[in-house]
């Protein structure tokens, strides 16, 4: 598979995809027809226009899958797919309704370049269980695309020792996940991404990632770290600690 999984599409102080534009344009085939999946936000037309404005100056033709009466046919006519960010539950529900969950999964497994950002990166994991999002809709299942066998937490946010907020930190929530599931979670800080290609996986971008595994302290992974071992994960969901 050929995957580019971004933590975020917008970096503070920069335009849409600007922080990763060189990586994105190098990832996508030259003069590609890109199928954009806008279902994580309510306004599909405005979302697609935003992606067009960011990518078409680089020679990428952007087509929203909603612009075709048959979204699966639009995907089949494309050179790559980009699943955008927003609410992960709304996105997954729409993928089920349109038939794109199976179509995108199968196409990516056969080598169609898959790019995700935020919610679109959540889709590449086996389930939505490590999403930061509120379940504003109820999809038929939490089962996502399963393009990688481990979980990802985009927008990973480090605990603030000076904060007076008494809610759970991201680290605490992921620790709770590991108490019930024996599956690694890769926390991608904003500005970082995961590249999967030729059977390998590498942390890339401007910031290190953070890896959570059951029974171990979180591990810092600098940009450039090879994490191909995670591709051999055998996930165990609903496996509480004893």
Automatic annotation (TrEMBL):
Pfam family, one: Peptidase_S51
Domain of life assignment: Bacteria
Keywords: Dipeptidase, Hydrolase, Protease, Serine protease
UniProt-listed InterPro entries: Class_I_gatase-like, Peptidase_S51
Gene3D superfamilies: 3.40.50.880
Residue stretches spanning the membrane: none
Enzyme's top EC category: hydrolase
EC number: 3.4.13.21
Family: Belongs to the peptidase S51 family.
The protein, known as: Dipeptidase PepE
Gene name in the database record: pepE
């Amino acid at each position: 598979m050929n995957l580019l999984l971004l933590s975020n599409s917008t970096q503070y102080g920069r335009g849409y995809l600007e922080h990763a534009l060189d990586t994105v344009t190098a990832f996508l085939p030259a003069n590609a027809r890109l199928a954009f999946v806008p279902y994580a936000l309510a306004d599909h037309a405005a979302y697609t226009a935003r992606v067009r404005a960011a990518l078409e100056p680089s020679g990428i033709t952007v087509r929203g899958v909603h612009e075709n009466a048959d979204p699966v046919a639009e995907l089949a006519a494309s050179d790559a797919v980009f699943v955008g960010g927003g609410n992960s539950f709304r996105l997954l529900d729409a993928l089920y309704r349109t038939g794109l969950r199976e179509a995108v999964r199968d196409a990516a497994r056969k080598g169609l370049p898959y790019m995700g950002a935020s919610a679109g990166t959540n889709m590449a994991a086996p389930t939505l269980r490590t999403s930061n999002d509120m379940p504003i809709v109820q999809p038929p299942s939490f089962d996502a695309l399963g393009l990688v066998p481990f979980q990802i937490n985009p927008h990973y946010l480090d605990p603030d020792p000076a904060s007076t907020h008494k809610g759970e930190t991201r680290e605490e929530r992921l620790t709770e996940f590991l108490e019930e599931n024996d599956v690694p979670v890769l926390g991608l800080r904003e500005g970082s991404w995961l590249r999967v290609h030729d059977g390998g996986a590498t942390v890339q971008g401007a910031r290190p990632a953070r890896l959570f595994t059951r029974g171990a302290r979180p591990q810092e992974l600098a940009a450039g770290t090879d994490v191909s071992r995670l591709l051999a994960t055998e996930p165990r969901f609903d496996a509480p600690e004893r």
